[in-house]
Design goal:
53% helix, mainly alpha, 10% strand, 144 residues, 6 strands
């Protein structure tokens, strides 16, 4: 767990609000189990849980998942993701990609559970912004 400072100078403890399923068979299956953490929430609580999901520490299992199922993907047809992970370079990019995956799988979950349109729109907008940030990061890291 990690902490961050909130407005009234108190620390807020970031909670792990998912379980990671290590036994999935396909890369398009969600390794994230949100069931216990994203049920019966009002909009405010939902946003807090999503914030925790964004801020929670990247797990080694998530890096392994990214490498196993997306390692052959290339950036600008030049840099393979598994080589970036193996060399332990551009960790901020790897973390950004994992956070994107967390939110992608969350969108799938909330759509399947028929969440309110406000939660769905919020999460879709968030993912769009994350994609833009990741693209900006890639462009700057690889000087494109």
């Amino acid at each position: 767990m990690s902490d961050y400072l909130i407005l009234n100078n108190e620390y807020y403890n970031v909670k792990q609000n998912f379980y990671f399923n290590k036994t999935i068979k396909f890369g398009n299956d969600s390794p994230y189990i949100f069931t216990n953490h994203f049920t019966n929430l009002n909009y405010s609580d939902y946003v807090i849980n999503v914030t925790d999901l964004l801020k929670y520490t990247i797990l080694d299992e998530e890096i392994y998942f990214l490498k196993k199922y997306y390692g052959k993907k290339t950036i600008y047809n030049k840099y393979k993701l598994d080589k970036i992970i193996n060399k332990n370079v551009y960790t901020e990019l790897v973390h950004s990609l994992i956070i994107n995956k967390r939110i992608e799988f969350l969108i799938e979950y909330i759509n399947n559970k028929n969440y309110s349109i406000n939660c769905i729109n919020y999460t879709n907008k968030l993912l769009d912004d994350l994609y833009k940030n990741t693209k900006y990061l890639i462009d700057n890291l690889f000087n494109i």
